[in-house]
Design goal:
By secondary structure, the protein is mainly α. The chain has eight helices and no strands.
């Protein structure tokens, strides 16, 4: 048990920032909620560690837990109308588009906040995290065709939002 705990601590230190990035990009929650969600992901992973059959796939397994946790949290927050968009730049440091001007970051954040969480997740995992479509399908537990469809619609929605097109007005 002591060895498990030390190994888990090391994995936590290695994976924490990536998990936080995934959680934030899908939920767009505030710092306190992000801290709670991160703890929840690692607590779920700790409790379910015996179910991990292939330790070399730890990262994918943990990403799947983060994805499911983020979608569940987003839906809960959406129902309660408590979605907050705090501290975007500080939370997602080292993001692929982090070198752009902060105004561009705010525009992208605003556009992502207007998207359905399943479409946002597809964009986040594929475009921002750099995963393959197969990895996205595995983590999202959907067929490859569903990932392709979500990416197509997510890109279209993002383009419409950024261009101020008519398709984004009032629809999710």
């Amino acid at each position: 048990m002591q060895e498990d705990s030390k190994a888990f601590q090391k994995l936590y230190e290695q994976e924490q920032s990536r998990v936080r990035r995934i959680l934030y990009r899908i939920t767009l929650c505030n710092q306190a909620s992000l801290d709670e969600l991160t703890q929840e992901v690692f607590l779920k992973a700790w409790r379910a560690r015996a179910q991990l059959r292939e330790p070399e796939k730890w990262s994918s397994w943990l990403s799947q837990i983060a994805y499911v946790t983020a979608i569940d949290a987003y839906r809960l927050v959406k129902k309660r109308q408590e979605l907050q968009l705090d501290n975007f730049d500080a939370i997602v440091a080292n993001q692929p588009y982090g070198d752009q001007q902060s105004n561009d970051n705010l525009i992208v954040k605003e556009a992502l906040s207007k998207m359905d969480p399943l479409h946002r997740a597809a964009i986040v995992l594929f475009e921002l995290e750099g995963w393959t479509m197969e990895e996205c399908a595995s983590v999202m537990k959907v067929p490859l065709g569903t990932v392709k469809s979500r990416l197509f619609h997510a890109r279209q929605k993002l383009r419409d939002i950024l261009e101020g097109g008519p398709r984004h007005a009032g629809s999710q």
